[in-house]
Amino acid sequence: MPAELQQAAAREPILTLPGALTAYVLLIAVIHLRVLLPPELEDWTIDVFGFIPKRYDAMPLDLFPGGVGAKVWTFVTYSLLHANITHIVFNVLWLLPFGSALARRFGPFRFFLFMAVTAAAGAFAHLLTHEHAAAPMIGASASVSGTMAAAIRFAFVQGSFLSFSRGDADAAAKVPALPLSRALRDRRVLGFLAVWFGVNIIFGAGSLALGTDGAAVAWQAHIGGFFAGLLLFSLFDPVPRTSNAATASPADPANPG
Q1: CA–CA distance, 196 with 106 (Å, rounded to integer)
Q2: HSE of 14, CA atoms in CB hemisphere, 13 A
Q3: Residue 251 to residues 66, 130, 234, 244: CA-CA distances in angstroms?
Q4: Do 220 and 201 touch, CB atoms closer than 8 A?
Q5: How many other CB atoms sit within 10 Å of the CB of residue 200?
Q6: For residue 142, which of 116, 112, 118, 113 has the smallest C-alpha distance?
Q7: pTM of the model
Q8: The predicted structure's pLDDT at residue 248
Q9: Percent of the chain scored above 90 by pLDDT?
Q10: Could you tell me if residue 191 is inside a domain?
Q11: Is position 144 within any domain?
């Protein structure tokens, strides 16, 4: 086989989704079938499994369905509910590159736990900034933001999925990550952070809605999930670190080649 065809064959798996991410997307799709329920049951589902800051006020527990249990599980379950197909598609499109790399790197158990933890971090940020709010928050955007933040810890490293030189999908997802302090000195990581925060600030300042039927974007939850993914990545990462200069980004002055 010619070298060009061998190289193409080696890179082809980058286009396939790992099983954990496929299962996550299918779970979201199946849960979205709730829209087929009668309106009163659909509203009940949102009230029981959506994240409602007012649920945590000092008030009778029967104001919202779900009781004490809903105060716990909604920190995660809200992330599996979406307003409409556009809302789902938008989140899935961002998950395809970043979530795929993270699912390959972490494996199923770590990946699902990571999605739950970043969802909870997003809900906590939303609770702090929307105290007493009665509107339910739904959507996986906080977890999606967390995967993006975690992935940039290794995405630009030579051989990884956003570098100029990479191998197959599994190898690209398992290059050693940079320490956080070093990653934050990488020009491309800083550029990514500037764009990501800029977009979220624009959405928040303009109260723009994106695929949520007029509901405001919960940008504080995005930031909560993002910081959780960035700071907690090392607790989930099974790939050993290395100080070898060969693992640095091509843009890193210590490894200009």
Answers
A1: 23
A2: 20
A3: 51, 40, 22, 15
A4: no
A5: 18
A6: 118
A7: 0.81
A8: 41
A9: 47
A10: yes
A11: yes
Which residue in 153, 150, 143 sits closest to 222, CA to CA? Answer: 143
pLDDT at 60: 55
What secondary structure letter does DSSP report for 166?
A: B
The whole-number pLDDT of residue 109 equals: 96
Between the CA atoms of 141, 200, 83 and 144, what dihedral angle is there, to the nearest 10 degrees? -10
Flag whether 174 is in a domain.
yes
Query: Does residue 252 sit within a domain?
Result: no
Domain that includes residue 203, residue range: 3-247
CB 142 within 8 A of CB 81: no
Give whole-number Cα distances, 171 to 11, 78, 104, in Å. 10, 33, 9
Mean pLDDT, to the nearest integer, of 61-80? 89
**3-class DSSP string for 112-165:** HHHHHHHHHHHHHHHHHHCCCCCCCECCCHHHHHHHHHHHCCCCCCCECCCCCC
pLDDT at 169 (0 to 100) = 75
CB 222 within 8 A of CB 142: yes
Which CATH number does the domain housing residue 18 bear?
A: 1.20.1540.10
**Cα separation of the two ends of the chain:** 29
Number of residues in the chain: 257
Q: For residues 135 and 52, what is the distance between their CA atoms, to the nearest angstrom?
A: 6
**Count of domains for the chain:** 1
